Structures are given as structure tokens and as C-alpha cells.
């Protein structure tokens, strides 16, 4: 027994997957196709996807936002769990990466729920606000360029309703957050973001040490 978060050895990680992962076949196929890309580590872990799907169900989400789509795994996970009239506004700048996702969204029959916006995410988020989207969204997932995390967070906080949830990915950044020799812009941005969130009393928070660290922030 331990009340410290366990070190996940490869064997314990495999056990976790063996006894809990219920990954639909199309998500597995998308993960396998993405694995052949040199950027595959950008994709979220499957157990994290399943956790996010559960969160989306728990809060009865219908309207959601994704900042950082890549090959579409997290968007697909969320779209599969949303009701028929659910929506994911999916923000990315890469036609190349997101075209992989589009194929799977079509095959899964959820392409109608995913509104892909190919533009810098800050532009899209500000556009949603201008269009009257403030307070209209239930869930947002932030997983794009790390230096913009504070900007994405501020926009998403405006866009989600009170009681809505923002999930922010990679907040442990492979452990680099505690390595003072790592002073690159991404690591510094994540450290600063984490520090800022601790004293942000507009939200309730929890940093969940799943995969690369996922902070949950619930708008009060
Ligand atoms: N959530 C994805 C998944 O589950 O596979 C992974 C997202 S990946 C870590 C980050 C993505 O952010 C990339 O696809 C990249 O093209 C996108 N990105 C980078 N800068 C961006 C920007 N300024 N606006 C929108 N998307 C951006
Ligand atoms: Ca990520």
C-alpha cells in the first residue's frame, strides 16, 4: 500500500492497460497508424483518452473545444462519447496531420460532430468569443504549443460555462518541470503556467499524474 503516486514501471503500466483499457477498434487503428510517424509521441495515451471520455460523460458535456488536434485521437475519443447533437470545435494549423484524423472521424460516423478549424488556435478561440460563445461550452482540452498555454487557458475559461471543465495536457513535461537545467521556452512556459494556476481562484484544480500529467480546472 502507498499513499504516494506510484512509479509506473513498464510492467505495472501494462497491467493497468490489461485490466482497464477498453479502446474501440477505430481508435486503436488510428493509434497504430500514428505510431509510424516520427511525431507519434504527440498523441495522448489511450488510458488518458478513456479518462477524458469519462470526464466528458460525467459532466454531461455537449459542446466542447480542442486546442491541438494532431492526427485526431483525442477529438475522436471525445466525439465518440458525445450525444448525437454534440460538438467538438477542433483547432489546429496542420492540414497534413488533421487529414489523418478526418479519415477516422468519417469511418467512425462522427465527422458531423467535429468542426475542424485550420487556423492558429488563438484566432479561432477569439472568433468563438466574438460570435457570442462565452459561457457556452462544457469542456475544453488544451494540447497545442506550450508557450500559448496561458492564452489558450484564458480564452477557454471565458468560453466554458460555470461548472465547465478545462483539461490541460503535458503539465509534467516528461519530468523536465523539476529539472532546473531545462530552461527551454516550452519547459519554462509549462512551469509558469502551473504556478499561475495554483493561485487562480476562478477554478478548482487537480493535477492528475496520468501519462504526461493532466491538470483539470473546473470553472467556479
Ligand atoms: N491532442 C492531440 C492528440 O490527441 O493526438 C495531440 C496534439 S499535438 C501535441 C499538438 C498539435 O498542436 C499539433 O497537431 C500542432 O499542429 C498543433 N499546433 C501547434 N501550434 C498551433 C497553433 N498555434 N494553433 C493551433 N494548433 C497548433
Ligand atoms: Ca499532449
Describe the structure concisely for a colleague.
The chain is an alpha/beta fold. 42% of the residues lie in helices and 20% in strands.
Protein described:
It is a single chain. The protein is built from 8 helices and 7 strands. By secondary structure, it is an alpha/beta fold. It has a single domain (about 45-220), classed as 3-Layer(aba) Sandwich (Rossmann fold), CATH 3.40.50.150. A 7-stranded mixed sheet has the order 3-2-1-4-5-7-6, sandwiched between helices. Helix 3 runs parallel beside helix 4 (about 75-80), helix 4 packs parallel to helix 5 (about 95-110) and helix 6 runs parallel beside helix 7 (about 150-160). The protein binds S-adenosylmethionine and calcium ion (CA). Calcium ion binds near residues 44, 169 and 170.
